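Tutorial sheet, problem 5. The two components below are modelled jointly, 331 residues in total.
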Amino acid sequence: MVPLQLVVILFAAAAGLAVVLARDIVRQAILFSLYGFALVVLFVVLQAPDVALSALAVSGIAYPLVLVSAIARVRARDKRGRE
Amino acid sequence: MSRTVRLTMVGVSLAGFAALLAWGVADLPSFGHYPGPYGDLIVKLVQPQRHMANAVTAVVFDYRGFDTMGEELLLFAAASALALLLRETREDEVEDIREPVLSDAIRGGGLLASIVTLVVGLYVVAHAFITPGGGFQGGVVLAASLAFLFLAIEYQRWGKVAHSSIMEPVEAFGAGAYVALGLIALASGLAFLENFMELGVFGRLSSGGSAILLNLASALAVAGGFLVIFGECLQENVGARHGSRTNR
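Model answer (structure tokens):
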């Protein structure tokens, strides 16, 4: 295992831990896309550019989009519930 | 249940999982060592057999095109199910909502990001058999391009561009075309989804045979599917924020 791979694996592990430890759900969604980015870098470092592109598109764009809009939806409902 | 009992239960199950994980990891081939013959065979055969440079897309759209069809129909089913479930807010309820983008920075940045991702998406789809990427990745990037456009223009106008009455047929056409291409091969006396076109010259955009059409079909299906999902989520949000009739 070359040092670069080790660094990226540790980065992915730290980002994954951050997702689990975050309490605020929006912060968690943003940290998740950071974790996804760590995985993308890991795939590039391990010479799997096709997988990296898929991961970039799904965990960097598609998943956070759906997640954030779902959170906004639930918050709007909560707000109305309180009113 | 007391704290001690709970901690003991968690400790026992965590130790069990840790043991299973250690057992599994111990049996893995050593890091960076690839044991199977298939990858090496594909890398050797893909250029003479299929005239493609990117072995990964060659596997996805040619050697195991049938599996890819399943993946594609899976996304189709997911988008359809989501559109079915998020029927709380209807289109006519968000029709009159005006939400102008007030920040010039967001408008400019959104437009720029949209143009850049559009070019990248088209590149990734077109170069599927030459450079990394392909219909699936490119399709998501193309969908992201239209999603970025949402930052640049008002929801009302965005809804006209990426309306579900446009995106649903795009998605359905892509998914249907994939199956139809398989049936065309079947009708010409070949196996389902087998290549039925000229393979072309190695390294050209036009080479790869009918897998090119499969690639384009899946790009359409994936881009359409993601935009249906995004559009439905967005419509729900806008409806919820402005308190549409059914939500009141």
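Marking note: Residues 46 and 82 of chain A are 50 Å apart (CA to CA). Full credit if you identified this.
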